[in-house]
Design a protein that fits this description.
Layout lengths: L20 E5 L12 E5 L7 H12 L5 H21 L7 H11 L34 E2 L6 E2 L10
Antiparallel strand pairs: 1-2, 3-4
Length: 159
Amino acid sequence: MTNCPHCPDGHTPPTRGSQPWSVWVSDHRDGDGQPTLIMIARSAGAHVAESDAQWMRDVLNRRAGAPAAELDRLAEQRSLALDYLESLAGRAITETHRMRLLRILDDGRLNGPPCGKTRSTDGATYPPCARPVGHHEAYCRDAAHVSYFIAAERTRSHP
């Protein structure tokens, strides 16, 4: 909870509460008639505080310690762990144990929209990549963890 003059028990953090965030383009226009403002608010008219505005600035600008920056850091750590674990194939741990660890590490909890690439650099077609768009791993992977491939650029199966 953060300080808020309207909340005696402390203001609910921006990542919690029953009122989700809403976003829309405002009616405000520049001289050419182009929209210039994006409005962000809690649904149902819930009040906001300066701490919410600071959180939103941090998220949008991916500042260190901000939720988006933390997500990037976690994604990079997961990528390094996956690369290391895959380098151990056939050594140090059993294949069954390795695959179990891979599924835990690469379970999709950090995923945004899927990458969706389907064509490899050698022209072969695979099931759509289930990793998030812009993933750090050098290879794509299908949802079943069966197909791993180096994707050709601009080969998404959907927009």
